[in-house]
């Protein structure tokens, strides 16, 4: 690559792709003053995944169209990939195929140089026996204890995936034709959606990302200088916090930090037991074994005197499964990378699906500095597809660019959401995504864009 000293982008196109309920953004920076044609454009891809398309859209065909469009616009070279977190609606597009013709194969063919993921994806974070070198005995013991905490958390996330897969199987079982009255359709759909997003381990996508370019596993405050690759662009990471960082906000120093670690260990044990139980239930349900081998079995009907009891148990189990997958969803969302880009005097905020538990570190630790940093954000990628718990009020109230005046001096706040109505949550329970009250605020106080009505993509162009 030619020397880039002094180069600055002259424009940026943010392209948001129609991936239904998911995220996929291609950022193309133009360098008009670059001496070589090959250096005049640099590209960042932020997420590529879906958990469902509009009714009239073929999911596989649409995802391949998106991959090919990215390929064309990058002209054979993608510079940086940012993966906010592991949910299917953010990484399924990186999946490869044995014949080399998957969407992930197309992206890998663009030879990205840098892949950015949250610290929870770091293979080293999964090893509880990692030893720290070059430290005193006391420091080494503390570092080992902290790493053990991180390993427990990552292990719990893995167990959550296993549990979600088993829940999908159980929902299928409870809604099969053999039951005169299975789970309510709306309840079953909510559980299926959340467990599918959490449960699919996306092994192919994860391995593909690990083998593309140099991997950086980031956390709050992680320092990354990409001025050689992307001159004139500043990267800041405001999340996710590590567990050591997040323990501080819980005021554990006022009590006993070991108590927090014990709670984390208990949480890891809880999810481990849930996953083990799920494996056992899956075995029973699939006919691999019998819990009570000598008991009578009713395959296609239930005795009349048992039906009321079974219906109550099924309703209770449905509610329990929904609560579990909601917990799983929140836990994985809170591993999201919160990325703030600064270029040409403008700040662009991409928070993935980060919810309040992720945001609270940035908004409460060193609060004044971060609120000042975020005050003049010009572009905001709306968190978690427009859900109510991913745009904290502290953050929203802090944006100085909000205005009812569409010609606001200095530029009105630009907002963009990739979403699809009717896929997640319900209006009656005020959990629908995108959240109606939030969308109303976005439409009234910012220049609001959404992928909902687009065929392939929508573009926002900024000049510097």
Biggest sheet descriptor = 7 strands, mixed
- Residue-averaged pLDDT: 78
Q: Proportion of β residues?
A: 15-25%
The level of helicity is 40-55%
Quickly give the structural class. Answer: alpha/beta
Number of helices: 13
Low-confidence stretches: 248-266
What's the topology here?
Elements: E1 11-17, E2 24-30, E3 41-48, H1 59-74, E4 80-82, H2 88-91, H3 103-108, E5 114-118, H4 137-174, H5 185-199, H6 203-210, E6 214-218, E7 233-239, H7 243-249, H8 257-285, H9 304-333, E8 338-343, E9 346-350, H10 356-364, H11 367-375, E10 377-381, H12 393-398, E11 414-417, H13 436-445, E12 447-450, E13 457-463
Parallel strand pairs: 3-4, 4-5, 5-6, 9-10, 10-11, 11-12
Antiparallel strand pairs: 1-2, 1-13, 2-3, 7-8, 8-9
Helix pairs in contact: 4-5, 4-8, 4-9, 5-9, 10-11
Features:
alpha/beta; 6-stranded mixed sheet; 7-stranded mixed sheet; 464 residues
What does this protein structure show overall?
With 464 residues, this protein is α/β, with parallel strands linked by helices. It is 40% helix and 16% strand. The protein is built from 13 helices and 13 strands. It has helices at 59-74, 88-91, 103-108, 137-174, 185-199, 203-210, 243-249, 257-285, 304-333, 356-364, 367-375, 393-398, 436-445; strands at 11-17, 24-30, 41-48, 80-82, 114-118, 214-218, 233-239, 338-343, 346-350, 377-381, 414-417, 447-450, 457-463. The strands form 2 sheets. A 7-stranded mixed β-sheet has the order 6-5-4-3-2-1-13. Helix 1 (59-74) links the parallel strand 3 (41-48) and strand 4 (80-82). It is globular. The two termini are 23 Å apart.
């Amino acid at each position: 690559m030619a020397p880039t000293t002094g180069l600055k982008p002259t424009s940026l196109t943010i392209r948001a792709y129609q991936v239904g309920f998911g995220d996929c953004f291609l950022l193309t920076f133009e360098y008009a003053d670059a001496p070589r044609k090959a250096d005049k454009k640099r590209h960042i891809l932020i997420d590529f995944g879906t958990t469902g398309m509009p009714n009239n859209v073929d999911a596989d065909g649409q995802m391949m169209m998106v991959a090919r469009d990215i390929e064309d616009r990058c002209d054979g070279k993608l510079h940086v990939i940012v993966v906010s977190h592991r949910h299917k609606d953010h990484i399924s597009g990186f999946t490869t195929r044995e014949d080399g013709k998957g969407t992930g194969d197309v992206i890998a063919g663009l030879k990205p140089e840098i892949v950015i993921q949250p610290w929870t994806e770091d293979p080293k974070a999964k090893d509880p026996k990692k030893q720290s070198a070059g430290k005193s005995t006391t420091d080494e013991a503390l570092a080992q204890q902290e790493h053990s905490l991180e390993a427990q958390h990552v292990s719990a996330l893995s167990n959550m995936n296993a549990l979600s897969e088993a829940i999908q199987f159980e929902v299928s079982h409870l809604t099969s034709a053999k039951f005169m009255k299975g789970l309510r359709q709306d309840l079953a759909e909510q559980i299926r959606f959340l467990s599918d997003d959490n449960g699919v381990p996306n092994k192919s996508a994860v391995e593909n990302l690990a083998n593309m370019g140099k991997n950086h596993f980031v956390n709050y405050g992680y320092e990354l200088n990409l001025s050689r690759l992307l001159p004139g662009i500043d990267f800041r990471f405001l999340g996710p916090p590590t567990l050591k960082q997040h323990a501080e906000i819980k005021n554990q120093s006022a009590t006993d930090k070991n108590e927090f670690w014990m709670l984390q260990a208990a949480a890891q044990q809880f999810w481990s037991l849930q996953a083990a139980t799920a494996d056992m239930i899956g075995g029973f349900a699939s006919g691999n074994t019998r819990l009570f081998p000598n008991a009578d079995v009713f395959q296609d009907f239930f005795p009349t005197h048992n039906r009321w009891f079974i219906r109550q148990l099924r309703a209770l189990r449905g509610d329990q499964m929904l609560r579990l997958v909601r917990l799983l969803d929140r836990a994985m969302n809170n591993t999201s990378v919160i990325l703030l880009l600064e270029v040409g005097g403008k700040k662009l905020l991409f928070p993935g699906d980060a919810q309040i538990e992720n945001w609270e570190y940035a908004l409460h630790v060193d609060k004044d500095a971060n609120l000042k940093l975020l005050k003049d954000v010009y572009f905001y990628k709306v968190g978690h597809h427009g859900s109510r718990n991913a745009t904290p009020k502290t953050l929203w109230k802090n944006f100085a660019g909000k205005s009812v005046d569409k010609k606001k001096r200095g530029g009105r706040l630009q907002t963009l959401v990739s979403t699809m109505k009717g896929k997640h949550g319900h209006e009656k329970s005020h959990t629908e995504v995108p959240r109606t009250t939030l969308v109303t605020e976005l439409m009234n106080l910012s220049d609001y864009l959404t992928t909902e009505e687009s065929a392939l993509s929508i573009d926002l162009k900024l000049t510097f």
